[in-house]
């Protein structure tokens, strides 16, 4: 399969590109910079220059492919407005990609987060949120999946709060960045709230499995660790960086503060049973031991 991928140089994307190439697929990858283009070429991918806002470029990439994996997302999370702009840009990109593929029965796999469900771990059957800070993403992904009736094999891989590799990435990575910046390995609330996690290399396998075989309109959970306590995550970060560990106001984390403070475990039992996905790489707390002071 010739696969068009956006976001192919990120923590998840670079692992997905390698997974696809290592399993007999070819890759056409969107690159917004010379550095990204060089990295993708070194990995063995063909490069298409442009960024997520270039809708005509996205359509041309989809038209040239047998399937699409959409992973790109804005990098500015400094304010609620910046996060909203990134979500809107992603939504427009998904609309353009979906419209290009309607009627072809070609697959498109997009990414979202696992939903929050009060009092229990979320499952693949739970809907994405339609209100709150990431509601726009939930609406965009749901709209894509609803195109199954129009000849589009659209699927969503829901990612946990931390996708990690060598101790970097995801919400745990944001905690690490905040700790380096402030000199405190902080966490909001009492730290008992749980975040799910997955190693990027395990997530990449799931993206390939979903692309190859998942039915249209389905959602899957790339969850290896159902929920690590945020206090335990901060404790490893503090020990590795030689910093004190203590609670801090959720406002210190900007637009992510309310999300960081939530208990949000997630299950992947259905994904494992239905697709045979088996995470084999290090869990989050073990992987954070790779952090360097």
Task: Write a compact overview of the structure shown.
This is NAD-dependent epimerase/dehydratase. The chain has helices at 11-21, 34-43, 55-63, 80-101, 135-145, 170-182, 200-213, 230-241, 257-260, 269-275, 284-287, and strands at residues 2-6, 26-31, 46-49, 67-70, 107-113, 153-159, 162-164, 185-187, 194-199, 218-221, 225-229, 245-247.
Q: Topology, please?
A:
Blueprint: E1 2-6, H1 11-21, E2 26-31, H2 34-43, E3 46-49, H3 55-63, E4 67-70, H4 80-101, E5 107-113, H5 135-145, E6 153-159, E7 162-164, H6 170-182, E8 185-187, E9 194-199, H7 200-213, E10 218-221, E11 225-229, H8 230-241, E12 245-247, H9 257-260, H10 269-275, H11 284-287
Helix pairs in contact: 1-7, 3-4, 4-5, 6-8
């Amino acid at each position: 399969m010739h696969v068009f991928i956006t976001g192919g140089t990120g923590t998840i994307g670079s692992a997905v590109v390698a997974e696809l190439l290592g399993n007999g697929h070819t890759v056409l990858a969107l690159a917004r910079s010379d550095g990204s283009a060089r990295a993708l070429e070194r990995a063995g991918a063909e490069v298409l220059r442009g960024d997520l806002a270039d809708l005509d470029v996205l359509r041309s990439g989809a038209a040239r492919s047998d399937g699409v994996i959409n992973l790109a997302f804005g990098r500015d999370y400094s304010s609620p407005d910046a996060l909203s702009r990134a979500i809107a840009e992603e939504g427009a990109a998904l609309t353009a990609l979906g419209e290009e593929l309607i009627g072809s029965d070609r697959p498109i796999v997009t990414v979202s987060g696992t939903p929050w469900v009060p009092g229990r771990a979320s499952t693949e059957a739970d809907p994405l949120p339609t209100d709150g800070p990431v509601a726009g993403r939930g609406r965009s992904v749901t709209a894509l999946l609803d195109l199954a009736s129009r000849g589009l094999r659209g699927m969503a891989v829901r990612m946990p709060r931390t996708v990690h590799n060598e101790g970097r990435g995801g919400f745990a990575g944001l905690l690490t960045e905040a700790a380096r910046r402030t000199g405190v390995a902080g966490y909001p609330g009492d730290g008992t709230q749980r975040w799910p996690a997955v190693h990027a290399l395990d997530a990449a396998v799931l993206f390939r499995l979903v692309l190859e075989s998942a039915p249209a309109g389905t959602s899957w959970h790339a969850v290896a660790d159902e929920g690590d306590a945020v206090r335990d995550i901060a404790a490893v970060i503090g020990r590795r960086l030689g910093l004190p560990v203590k609670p801090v106001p959720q406002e210190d984390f900007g637009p992510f503060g309310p999300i960081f403070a939530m208990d949000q475990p997630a299950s992947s039992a259905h994904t494992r049973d239905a697709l045979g996905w088996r995470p084999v790489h290090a869990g989050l707390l073990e992987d954070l031991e790779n952090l360097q002071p």
